[in-house]
Amino acid sequence: MDAKQIKTAISNLEKSQDDDASLLEILKTLDQGIKATEALLRETKVGIVVNKYRGSSNNEISSLVKSMVKKWKEDIKKSKLKSDGKTPNSTASQKNGTTTTTTSSSSSSSTTKSTTTTKSASTAGTAEKSLKPARVYEGKRSCKIDGVDYRIYEESIRNSMLDALYTGLAKENKTNGPNEIFGVAKEIETEVFGMSNHMTNDFYRSKLRTLVANIRSSNNPELRAKLLSRRLAANKFVKMSPEEMANENLRKEREQIEKENLFKAKSAVEKKAVTDRFQCGKCKQRKVSYYQMQTRSADEPLTTFCECVNCGNHWSFS
């Protein structure tokens, strides 16, 4: 099969992803028709597409994909060994009971040139890889879509939690690779499993569901970014409260609400007095009601809460 035929087969493969029979037929066609080379795999990206079905629930599909990927790797390895430099020709001569190995100068020269050429090709390949732009992941992501085998434990509940964590961490993510995201998901699950005395009990389930809900929150992309960049370690994350996980804007909103509630709290409010000593910063009037409360430790000064009689503006100071 040439590159064009392979790309057509890939397109049909993606269209038939919900039909196991069609999937199996197309995969078998690719298996029989492709003689893998590094250039062909890079051009068509067939290896990436096929590998997505490695974790298929259909054992026949899963086994076939693993066999195909293994065969392609072996084909590329053999091709590389075949194309690498030749070994120098040596002649052995027997003289006076001792064996002398002679290598021709032309062979030595050929070997040197071959080595130089190989090194140059290797350097060029490294430079090409370094210039190659990072892959961008588009659309919805999950273990199944990204081709990640998350079923690494005997307990299905642990595998399900890994899948849920991966999906949450990968939400709206276009840059982090599957291995990187799965590594963070595994660290979080492992920490919670340890906190629950290595049992999948109610604490384990409840804790992970809470963590997943916070990770997946549309209002908190900062949390996902911190976890994936390792600015927030898994062992610290699992001990945080929902309030600590909230993003900066949400925390400020909660503080503002608490502050407003403090103003409105009648039971703890002393009788208000009206004075002209304070000026409203909003309307510049000097008709202001105020009261004082001890909001901090006893050795700290009282906090004065002010309200403009004219426009209702609130402020406080110590």
From TrEMBL:
Q: Which residues cross the membrane?
A: none
Please state every residue range assigned to the domain named TFIIS N-terminal.
1-79
Grouped into one coarse class, the protein's main location is nucleus
The residue ranges of the TFIIS central domain are 157-273
**Keywords for this protein:** Coiled coil, DNA-binding, Elongation factor, Metal-binding, Nucleus, Protein biosynthesis, Transcription, Transcription regulation, Zinc, Zinc-finger
Q: Which GO terms describe its molecular function?
A: RNA polymerase II complex recruiting activity; RNA polymerase II transcription regulatory region sequence-specific DNA binding; translation elongation factor activity; zinc ion binding
Q: Which SUPFAM superfamilies match?
A: Conserved domain common to transcription factors TFIIS, elongin A, CRSP70 (SSF47676), Elongation factor TFIIS domain 2 (SSF46942), Zinc beta-ribbon (SSF57783)
Name the CDD domains for this protein.
Zn-ribbon_TFIIS (cd13749)
Query: Where, if anywhere, are coiled coils annotated?
Result: 240-267
Give start and end of each TFIIS-type domain.
276-316
Which GO biological process entries does UniProt record here? regulation of mRNA 3'-end processing; transcription antitermination; transcription elongation by RNA polymerase I; transcription elongation by RNA polymerase II
Keyword Transcription listed? The answer is yes
* Annotated localization: Nucleus
Entries under Gene3D superfamilies matching the protein: 2.20.25.10, Conserved domain common to transcription factors TFIIS, elongin A, CRSP70, Transcription elongation factor S-II, central domain
Task: Indicate, by first and last residue, each region the UniProt record lists as having compositional bias (Low complexity).
Answer: 90-128
> What GO cellular component entries does it have?
nucleus
According to the record, the residues making up region (Disordered) are 78-131
Function in brief? Necessary for efficient RNA polymerase II transcription elongation past template-encoded arresting sites.
Family recorded in the similarity comment: Belongs to the TFS-II family.
Record's PANTHER family?
A: IP08861P-RELATED, TRANSCRIPTION FACTOR S-II ZINC FINGER DOMAIN-CONTAINING PROTEIN
The name under which this protein is listed is Transcription elongation factor
The species this protein was found in = Saccharomycopsis crataegensis
